[in-house]
Amino acid sequence: MRNIIILASGSGSNAENIIRYFAGREGVSVSHVLTNRSDAYVLERAKRLGVSTKVFDRTAFYDNNEVLYFLRSCQPDLIVLAGFLWLVPAALVEAFPQRIINIHPALLPAYGGKGMYGAKVHEAVVANGDGETGITIHYVNTRYDEGAVIFQARCPVDPGDDADLVAQKVHALEYEHFPRVIEEVLQQQGRP
Ligand code: GAR
Predict the structure, then answer these.
(1) How do the domains of the chain map onto residue ranges?
(2) Which residues does ligand 1 sit against, CB inside 6 Å?
(3) So what's the pLDDT on residue 191?
(4) How far apart are CA 71 and CA 96, in angstroms?
(5) Ligand 1 centre distance from Cα of residue 35 (Å)
(6) CA angle at residue 33 from 28 to 37, to 5 degrees?
(7) Atom of ligand 1 nearest to the CA of 104
(8) Residue 138 CA to ligand 1 centre (angstroms)
(9) Region label for 115, one of left (φ > 0), alpha (ψ between -120 and 50) or beta (otherwise)
């Protein structure tokens, strides 16, 4: 059984979509959802879907390696950041080479970096009058949104679109592509 662990900080609609996708498939499962926020709605979603959850704080993530040791004990094939907003520490990146991926709601390298997440990205896209935006799925390194790109998809930004509408279009792309790209990355890894 291939094992995915999801890290998320917020609503978790992507996490739910990924869990549902793999629940309907043989050989892959999401074993845990981890979050840095005890009030994140992703916790409700995971519990409803029967997936184990764990909440961690900054000390566990950055200082005493508690999260790293926990992840190691789970032996994940892939760690998926789905709306996870903390920078991943070097020790974690090094412990899971090519095994941590992130989704970003824009066409990187545009609209990436610290402070560029969620609605802030869509507001900037609208403010700049861009004619298109999209999603980027990429490997995670120790810098925000700079790891090697695995996949991008685009959608139009029409005149009159506000940030909420752009967010809906981008979320639709995420739901369509993220689980499938995760599946492809697992297939390309081969069996350990
Ligand atoms: C998603 O749009 C994801 O691309 C974005 O947060 C949203 C989470 O939505 N991630 C980032 O901005 C990371 N920099 P969700 O909680 O409903 O899945």
Answers:
(1) 2-189
(2) 8, 10-14, 82-83, 103-105, 117-118, 170-171, 174
(3) 55
(4) 9
(5) 13
(6) 165
(7) 4
(8) 13
(9) left
CA distance 120 to 107: 14
For the entire predicted model, the pTM comes to 0.97
Q: If the chain, 192 residues long, is cut into consecutive pieces of 10 residues, what is the mean pLDDT of each piece?
A: 97 98 95 98 98 98 98 98 97 97 98 95 98 98 95 97 98 98 94 50
Q: Which amino acid is at 192?
A: P
Give me the phi and psi of 125, to 5 degrees please. -60, -45
Residues 6+ apart with CB under 8 A from 190: none
Secondary structure letter of residue 83 according to DSSP: S
pLDDT at 34: 98
Q: How far is the CA of 189 from the centre of ligand 1 (A)?
A: 25
What is the Cβ-side half-sphere exposure of residue 54, based on CA atoms within 13 angstroms?
Answer: 16
User: Is domain 2-189 in CATH 3.60.21.10, yes or no?
Assistant: no
CA distance 22 to 45: 15
Q: Based on the residue annotation, tell me whether 177 is a catalytic residue of this protein.
A: no
Pairing type for strands 78-81 and 52-55 reads unpaired
Over the Cα atoms of the chain, what is R_g? 16
Over residues 88-105, the pLDDT tens digits come to: 999 999 999 999 999 999
Tokens (6 digits) for 32: 């845990």
